[in-house]
Write a structure and sequence with these properties.
Blueprint (H helix, E strand, L loop, with lengths): L5 E3 L2 H8 L8 E8 L5 H14 L5 E3 L10 E4 L8 E4 L5 H11 L10 E7 L13 E3 L30 E8 L5 H16 L42 E9 L11 H19 L7 E7 L15 E7 L11 H17 L7 H6 L6 H14 L7 E8 L7 H4 L4 E5 L8 E8 L2 E9 L5 H17 L5
Parallel strand pairs: 5-6, 7-9, 10-12, 12-14
Antiparallel strand pairs: 1-4, 2-8, 2-13, 3-4, 6-8, 9-15, 10-11, 14-15
Helix pairs in contact: 2-4, 5-6, 5-10
């Protein structure tokens, strides 16, 4: 019998594997809302076929001793476990599924390191009942953000309530093995198999190349601000708040993108939060994942994004609306320059740190020590903007096409807060995820209101 094929852990996977913590699992959560019901047997069959069409996802960590020089992925021909599960519908079904997506990482020892949980008949998405620690909250129409001068509250009506026949898909991913865009590709394949409809990605928007320029960039050597502590909770792990907002308006021909507007809104939100909590103004650095992979079936499956850090000087973070056009322009120059630079996924140092010249146990201890020592210089937060979801995620006539898709990224300390956005059906889907050692549920709601306010302030004429 031929032994399973093995693949050495790439740099990103190894660094993540070294730094795993049981109290804050490294999970990525993807939440997809469909208007209609799904057939259980048919979905299981479609998802299994999708896994076989992308065999790189069928993998588990190969066993080995402490003295081994590498971690290795062992490819399998079939899943080790049932990947798809169906939850009992009920009032708290959505909240409980979100909690599991944050707290229960699929084990690396079982193939594949992903789980799909289906919540059926969940009823309306928006509602006052969503006051749980992990819940879906309506935007601040007519409340919360109305107390912030110039808020966007009330300018859009909330979307229609979902029906009792709606379905929510929860994909939980072990981030040591895979990232969100790769698993969304798997789900798009499953949707095409299930519904028989074309789920090819829409072409990415084209941009006119900018002339070479040197952007105004603050120093990256200054120790960045941390997110000020709010009202932490006694329980370990992450909290989550997801909401739906209007896409920010951007005049045609603007020199900046929606991603730049989101970057500015995130920076101003954290600067405002820190001022409210008595912190001395400091520069910010926001980590931004960049994904250059194709979105079709040839997309490499795994952790394929590279991380860049966008710096902001404290003097830029006043929130003055008169300065907003220049601030957006400078941010656009920085993000485009950073995206264009060739750079390893985690920088050049990570490659040296994971060179297989010593046992992995020794490298793991060194990596964890360096992570602790570098904590004060870690970026302030992470903004992961998936952008427009490239696939229709159309599951056929009965289940329908996805009308909302949320992602959330791990929020371990020292950052303690991540902001993840995606757009579907002309709406912006925002997820705030935080470490409970740093923030509480009320803090998340206030940050959501601040973000909505500052996103609205970016809607200015250039």
């Amino acid at each position: 019998m031929t032994p399973p094929a093995r693949i050495p852990f790439p740099v990103v996977d190894e660094v993540s594997r070294h730094c795993l913590q049981e109290e804050e699992p490294e999970t990525v959560h993807i939440e997809v809302h469909l208007p209609g019901p799904l057939d259980q047997a048919r979905l299981r069959k479609a998802f299994l076929e999708a896994l076989h069409r992308h065999p790189r996802i069928l993998m588990r960590e190969a066993p080995g001793g402490w003295y081994r020089r590498r971690y290795e992925w062992e490819l399998t021909s079939e899943p080790d476990v049932e990947v798809v599960s169906f939850s009992e519908p009920g009032r708290d079904a959505l909240r409980d599924a979100r909690t599991r997506a944050l707290m229960e990482a699929p084990p690396l020892s079982l193939s594949p390191p992903i789980r799909l949980e289906v919540v059926e008949g969940s009823g309306p998405v928006e509602g006052s009942e969503a006051s749980d620690i992990v819940g879906l909250h309506p935007p601040a129409w007519g409340r919360g953000a109305a107390s912030i001068s110039g808020s966007a509250a009330g300018r859009d009506q909330p979307p229609p309530a979902r029906t009792r026949n709606s379905t929510v898909l929860f994909l939980t991913i072990n981030h040591t093995a895979l990232d969100g865009p790769a698993c969304l590709r798997i789900l798009a394949t499953a949707a095409e198999i299930y519904g028989g409809k074309d789920n090819s990605p829409t072409p990415a928007p084209t941009r006119t190349p900018d002339p070479p320029q040197t952007p105004e960039t603050p120093s990256n050597w200054t120790r960045p601000a941390r997110v000020a502590p709010g009202t932490p909770e006694n329980s370990p792990g992450n909290g989550l708040l997801v909401t739906e907002l209007p896409l920010p308006h951007r005049p045609k021909g603007s020199p900046y993108t929606v991603n730049d507007q989101l970057m500015v809104a995130t920076a101003l939100t954290i600067a405002h939060w820190n001022r409210e909590h008595g912190e001395t103004p400091r520069p910010l650095r926001i980590t931004m994942p960049v994904d250059d992979r194709p979105r079709d079936t040839s997309m490499p499956i795994g952790n394929g994004t590279r991380l860049v850090e966008v710096p902001f000087a404290s003097a830029e973070l006043t929130g003055d609306p008169h300065e907003m056009p220049d601030f957006l322009r400078r941010t656009a120059q920085r993000t485009r320059a950073l995206k264009s630079l060739p750079r390893p996924q985690l920088g050049h140092g990570a490659g040296l740190l994971t060179a297989p010249v010593t046992p992995v146990a020794w490298r793991a201890a060194l990596t964890r020590g360096l992570r602790r020592a570098a904590a004060p210089w870690t970026s302030t937060t992470l903004l992961s903007n998936i952008g427009r979801v490239p696939y229709p995620l159309d599951f056929g006539e009965e289940a329908g096409r996805a009308h909302a898709v949320w992602f959330s990224a791990p929020a371990r300390m020292p950052r303690g807060l991540t902001v993840t956005t995606a757009s579907t059906a002309g709406r912006l889907h925002l997820a705030l995820r935080w470490s409970r050692a740093l923030l509480g549920h009320g803090d998340g709601a206030h940050l959501r209101d601040l973000f909505e306010h500052y996103l609205h302030t970016t809607e200015v004429a250039p």
